[in-house]
Amino acid sequence: MKANQQNPKSKTRCKPSCDNKGAQASSTRGRPKRLKVLNLTFNVLFLNDAQMAGTGAVGFCDPETQTIGLVGTQPNDSMQDTFLHEVFHSIVHVMDLKENETEENYVRRLATGLCTVWNNNPAAFKWWSGLVYCEAIKNLNEL
Ligand SMILES: [Zn+2]
Q: How far is residue 130's CA from residue 75's CA, in Å, rounded to a whole number?
């Protein structure tokens, strides 16, 4: 879901939770505390269910306070998806991408934004890629 068009600076709580009780909660090791998004630094908070209670979301991006919030108990595959989802929101806000831009222009700028975030935050994306890599190794060991 995109940001509220009436107030593009409003907090976006739009990554809905999914019912995935059987999966393992994501590892806390290596979790990023901050993320540099172009020239701005976002704080990354890992929240418990109580702190997100009632929102029905597993993540949010608040460009006003430069905060990305993630439910810390979600499974690794969900955490990977949610983190990238909120990173995209932060890029959309920082680059002021508009829905009425052409698809090619939107995708071009989003790709450039993601490359920049990725290259400026290697530890965060090492953690991110390890979320699913660890799952794949675990699954191999269970064969
Ligand atoms: Zn969203």
A: 13
Dist. CA 16–CA 60, nearest whole Å:
10
pTM, 2 dp: 0.79
Residue 15 domain-assigned (yes or no)? no
Q: How far is the CA of 68 from the centre of ligand 1 (A)?
A: 11
Distance 140 CA to ligand 1 centre (A): 33
pLDDT < 50 stretches in the chain: 1-10, 18-22
Instruction: Give pLDDT tens digits for 88-114.
Output: 999 999 999 998 999 999 999 999 999
pLDDT tens-digit series, residues 124-135: 999 999 998 766
Q: Provide the number of structural domains found in the chain.
A: 1
CA of 13 to the centre of ligand 1 (A): 6
For residue 23, is it within any domain?
no
Q: How far is the CA of 142 from the centre of ligand 1 (A)?
A: 34
